[in-house]
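Following the same procedure, backbone shapes were mapped to integers, yielding the entry below.
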Amino acid sequence: MLPFLTADVPGCGGVFKATPEDFEVEELPAYEPSGERDAEHLFLWIEKRGLSTQDAAKALTRHCGLKEKDVSWAGLKDRHAVTRQYLCAPARFVEPKLADLQVPGLTVLRSARHRNKLKSGHLHGNRFTLRLRGVRDVDAARASLAALVKAGVPNYFGEQRFGLGGDNAARGKAILLAGGRHRDRFERKLFLSAYQSELFNRVLAARLSDGTYARALVGDVLKKVPTGGEFLCAEPLVDQPRVDAFEVSPTGPMFGPEMRHPTGDADALESRVLVDEGIERALFERGGGETLGTRRTLRVPLALEALEAEGEVLTLRFTLPAGSYATVLLRELLKD
């Protein structure tokens, strides 16, 4: 089991997602569409229930006679939730048919044109409203949240990254060991990414366990917040105040040939994970463009906007940066 940041605080108890309305997610776009009439792309601000982002996109492609590649989005949103986000599609094909679009669980709230196509990652983050029912210890929830606001939320990849059977990472490793080939391109990308994600989680778990989660180590690759610039830590005493202030954060590996390598203590820790796994860094070259590699921060800032308790129902409103998982925060609260 992955270690908790808030291991010294008991779980608050409760049940999550008794109904889709218990999990609301609203995308925070990196930019809004310009609205220029002659722009070729149409941004659709949608609300969906009981549909994944891919489900909503496929419904749009079928209705408008598009190819799947014609519809894009900035980030994937949960099926078992009420979510709001942008989809993007060619305006000339979609606008004439938009009024007739009728898909259960899907509502187009507004639309506007934009010159550029929406691409994956074009968002600042997500705003969440979560409800826990049957909560036994509100004070424990408050204590865990206070610790997460102060130190940051562990940037683990959530369980959904690893598939319903939890074997996506193992299948990714098998693909690399077999030379990088796989019959299905989508599955190949999914499984390889899951394997990189599992190894990142192991590095993060090791740094939580040894107390270096929010510490600058000699040789750490530190990432600037929010610009994303990276640099090697040469003097921890100089960089630690910036870590404490959330100006920079230590990072972990998404292994691949283009990933920036740490040195010193940080490199030794990451190398131990590979040794324990029985693989070498060069293995990720077999993944081609799917495993080029990058650095991911070990923690993300939590912007807690509200905590409301009414009887045994606890409502949380908070914002997390793009790419992080609200389920990881809930795991810290529930301890299950």
